[in-house]
Amino acid sequence: MFAISSLFQPQLALHIPDGFLSLPVILVTWILAIALIGISLQRVQATYQERAVPLMGVCAAFIFAAQMINFPIPGGTSGHLLGGTLAGALLGPWAGSLVMAVVFVVQTLLFQDGGLTVLGANIVNMGLIGTFGGYYLYKVIRSVLGQDSLRGVLVGAAIAAWMSVFVSAIVCAIQLAISGTVPLAVAISAMAFWHFMIGIGEAIITVAALSYIWRTRPDMFHRPPRHAIADKSRSYSAR
């Protein structure tokens, strides 16, 4: 997730490399990742319409491309979009988690961004926590502030995007500490410090993307505003 010129750089990134997690942690996270993907596939096939398939492809391509762009963080560090909350807002948690899993697999196999043996942990940390956690926090805040208001969408997305990055970083730090790679105090303090700021960049990018989509294609949201549904119905009836 970030690059830092220090001894602990490989350990203190959200994309965990091979060799930094113990076998029990690897096995548990792989089981969780496989279960997440399996359940998500079933839910997508059962509940999503065919129109969601091309949107999933577009969303995956956008998130993959956006993750290639780093933004600078003070102290010689850089961050990039994680995208879980963005995927959840547009696709819902199930399809969004599948998109994120595909992105992580491609990154691992083609760009060595994270290790293959720990791919399950990366999917859990950034896919399960980032997408599901981010989506449901966004959903709650949006409901409180106004389901059909832009303010509800943007405030919910900003808070959820920041939280998804920060919580994923803490979970990653705990995994590294359990594995004996880095002392818990060192891992949590470093991950929390840097990802506090990286989460701000995540929130800004997520808000910018959703704001643009709200103005141009609000019907693309997983739970679109009522005016978008009404406009779409009128366009179909006029044909």
Automatic annotation (TrEMBL):
Pfam families: CbiM (PF01891)
Cellular component, GO annotation: plasma membrane
Membrane-spanning parts: 20-41, 53-73, 85-110, 116-138, 150-178, 184-214
Subcellular location: Cell membrane
Classification via Gene3D superfamilies: 1.10.1760.20
Membrane topology type: Multi-pass membrane protein
Keywords, sorted A to Z: Cell membrane, Membrane, Transmembrane, Transmembrane helix, Transport
Protein name as annotated: Cobalamin biosynthesis protein CbiM
Organism: Myxacorys almedinensis A
